[in-house]
Amino acid sequence: MTNPFDLTGKVALVTGANTGIGQGIAVALAAAGADIAAAGRSAPTETRAAVEALGRRFLSISADFGSTEPVQRVVDETVAGLGGLDILVNNAGIIRRQDSIAFSEDDWDAVMNTNLKTVFFLTQAAARHMLASGGGKVINIASLLSFQGGIRVPSYTASKSGLAGLTKILANEWAAKGINVNAIAPGYFDTNNTEALRADEARNRSILERIPAGRWGQPSDIGGAAVFLASGASDYVHGVTLPVDGGWLAR
Ligand code: NAP
Q1: Contact 155, 116 (CB under 8 A)
Q2: With a cut of 70, which residues of the chain have pLDDT below it?
Q3: Is 169 domain-assigned?
Q4: Domain presence at residue 200
């Protein structure tokens, strides 16, 4: 029997793959056989070394996803550089923390543009290619705040809750056309995004007390779910947001 998780011959575009969760996903997809295009604003030096050490091809594409300006170019460069685009991982994202009562329009727009608007238009550009080439896989990186309210992160919660909805509507439109659209909701992962939480001793303790697994997630914990949603193993899975959270939502 062939391995349903095998990604040999596939091309995956991962946004924000230079660090953290995006890096963990890019390396896991490469270990499963995919070639990787990494699009973002910082050089993905470490990720390139890890992907090439696995014997896969790696393409770095410079792009700032604070606006929709680069989306078509990113898709075109991926297809031109690696010969196709089968898997899109919308991982690049930001967070701004402030009491809602004092939250600025800048902090609203920056987060909504990067985490939601650009994701939609990059996905649209990628899907136009996938529809013409026989199908593909889209994986959105959502959050526990796709399910819960959070605190002091109004634009982040709105963007990640919106992303869970976007995952469903795109799945409804494209499931019969060969594109799977799903999301992963990481729990509390040890990355730049959560540095402020770990630096606050009381907050760090209360977070750890609530995680059934008793530890923060590491970027390597997310790869298995991404490989599943990128592979033939998930061909009949559409529109889900899969928590990878050490059991947080079960509590
Ligand atoms: P991270 O280490 O801060 O990584 C975020 C990535 O997004 C970086 O590669 C960053 O690039 C990139 N990015 C941000 N703004 C960008 C822009 N305008 N243009 C291009 N790239 C941009 O944090 P992370 O935790 O790995 O976050 C990855 C994703 O997981 C995000 O969508 C985040 O919301 C989500 N998430 C994280 C957690 C967690 O606990 N860590 C939980 C739930 C969801 P630079 O390095 O250049 O800034």
Answers
A1: no
A2: 1
A3: yes
A4: yes
